[in-house]
Amino acid sequence: DAGVIQSPRHEVTEMGQEVTLRCKPISGHNSLFWYRQTMMRGLELLIYFNNNVPIDDSGMPEDRFSAKMPNASFSTLKIQPSEPRDSAVYFCASSHLRLSDTQYFGPGTRLTVL
Amino acid sequence: KNEVEQSPQNLTAQEGEFITINCSYSVGISALHWLQQHPGGGIVSLFMLSSGKKKHGRLIATINIQEKHSSLHITASHPRDSAVYICAVKNQGAQKLVFGQGTRLTINP
Q1: Which of A4, A34, B32, B86 is a Cys-bridge partner for B102, taking CB atoms 3.0 to 4.6 Å apart?
Q2: How far apart are alpha carbons B62 and B49 in whole angstroms?
């Protein structure tokens, strides 16, 4: 299995631009998590889905952030408009809801907003 | 809200030393995870514990539910063990993880 796939791996953009991060979970996994990691705050959960349905989005910082999971093999995290304080590494992780609590992390997307 | 505290924040040791990283949490949990983040940024799940002890190679993880405390031990440490080790807990009845700030471990040859 290829593991969790994220794209792009690096993104540099200017303030005010729209940013879309993409994630493909491990095949057969039915839970998907979006995390953000910064030096100041460490790892934080933004939102997670079970069976493509958003369950908890309380970690989404504000309305500029949105996430979708149109099918079991694809999710997006969108920031519009982006701000310099959004600069961070964004991780996607997936797991199997019933079989195991172990989450498998993607390589992350390093976002820099200038 | 569960507060997860790790200690120490930074740890430097010589190759071969026995390493202990601690994690304390404030509210009852259903599971505790230890994660390893390599210098390149990738995150790997090492252990998931709900009670007792688990061992994998040179890594040992223990948890004391009554004390709300877990430890990660590394025996015969090696420079390739250098990484950030992150403790995360899952609250009872919840699915999401709450993370500690991580412990940066450096093993010198």
Answers
A1: B86
A2: 8
Average pLDDT (A72-98) is 94
Sequential DSSP letters for B27-84: S-EEEEEEEEE-TTS-EEEEEEESSEEEEETTEEEEEETTTTEEEEEESS--GGG-EE
In angstroms, rounded to a whole number, what is the distance separating the alpha carbons of residues B101 and A12? Answer: 26
Tell me which residue in A42, A48, A104 faces B96 most closely, judged by beta carbons: A48
User: What secondary structure letter does DSSP report for B85?
Assistant: E
Contact B42 A105 (CB under 8 A): yes
Give the number of other CB atoms < 10 A from CB of residue B94.
13
| pLDDT in single tens digits along all 109 residues of chain B | 668 999 999 999 999 999 999 999 998 888 999 999 988 778 999 999 999 999 999 999 999 999 999 999 999 999 999 999 999 998 888 778 899 999 999 999 9
User: Which residue is it, tokens 């959004």?
Assistant: A86
